[in-house]
Amino acid sequence: MTTENAPNIPLGVPTAARMYDEALGGKDHFEVDRAANAKLYQVIGENRVRSTALENRRFLGRAVRYLSQECGIRQFLDVGSGLPTARNTHQIAKEADPGSRVVYVDVDPIVAVHGRALLADNSTKIVTADMREPENILDNAQVNGFLDFSEPIAVLFVAVFHFVTPAEDPSRIVAAFRERQAPGSYVAISHLTTDGMSEKEQQGWYAGFAGATVPLVLREEKEILRLFDGYELVEPGLVRPCDWHPEDDGSPRTTSLFGGVGRLARAS
Ligand SMILES: C[S@@+](CC[C@H](N)C(=O)[O-])C[C@H]1O[C@@H](n2cnc3c(N)ncnc32)[C@H](O)[C@@H]1O
């Protein structure tokens, strides 16, 4: 479904996009999302959950800035983009080049509804689609008619693969995107991890997302590393997001996530 189709917003069930918005202090969520986050806060601690969300968001910002300013990337496909908030991908990318093109993709139709204001300029698009069916994104005219896949593109999967189950085969999904990318393209991935996370925190994350529209899957560091197969990890590799190209950006420090950026050196 694209923005042209009527949105079918799930009101009675929490969604990852709205829960994340609440954790970041946004306004685009409902009581059902606050109730789901209350479960997370009760078990894990409110500060820890909000810090995890913000650490992830800061990583996204630094990764986009690195890709646009240091790697010369002018095209971004932000998959599982979430609701618009402060410092979105297109705003950071356009600081390097106002002509940068960005496509946001999210399975939750509320993202397109709230993101319409972003479409005020014609260098940003929003598509409602499910990355578990990558062809629906890669063969979507709004995507491939807008981004030039013969030139480098950064595909962002920031805090989204923990909503993909092993049966849905995350490696297959990354490979589908990688196979369309030109050499010199990049991928950025962050992911909730069991490494360094207490049993209690793990149970808290699962309890919070138990009734959500997408399932939650925590992964070990080595499983997250495998998502970069076919790419060369740029320095400093797969690390805690706060340690990836750190800046004075107020990033909290948790041990709930890993994040990294990979470069596609050759056509795969
Ligand atoms: C935690 S938010 C992350 C938002 C943003 N990437 C960031 O890091 O700030 C995860 C987003 O992934 C989206 N998502 C989950 N499963 C998805 C899927 N199968 N296809 C596309 N988007 C998905 C959710 O709707 C949500 O907006």
From TrEMBL:
Keywords: Methyltransferase, Transferase. It holds the Pfam family Methyltransf_19. The keyword Protease does not apply. One of its GO terms (molecular function) is methyltransferase activity. Signal peptide: none annotated. Gene3D superfamilies: Vaccinia Virus protein VP39 (3.40.50.150). InterPro entries: SAM-dependent_MTases_sf, SAM_dep_MeTrfase_SAV2177_type. One of its GO terms (biological process) is methylation. The keyword Transferase applies. Its EC number is 2.1.1.-. Residues 244-268 are annotated as: Disordered. It is an enzyme of class 2 (transferase). Transmembrane segments: none annotated. This is SAM-dependent methyltransferase.
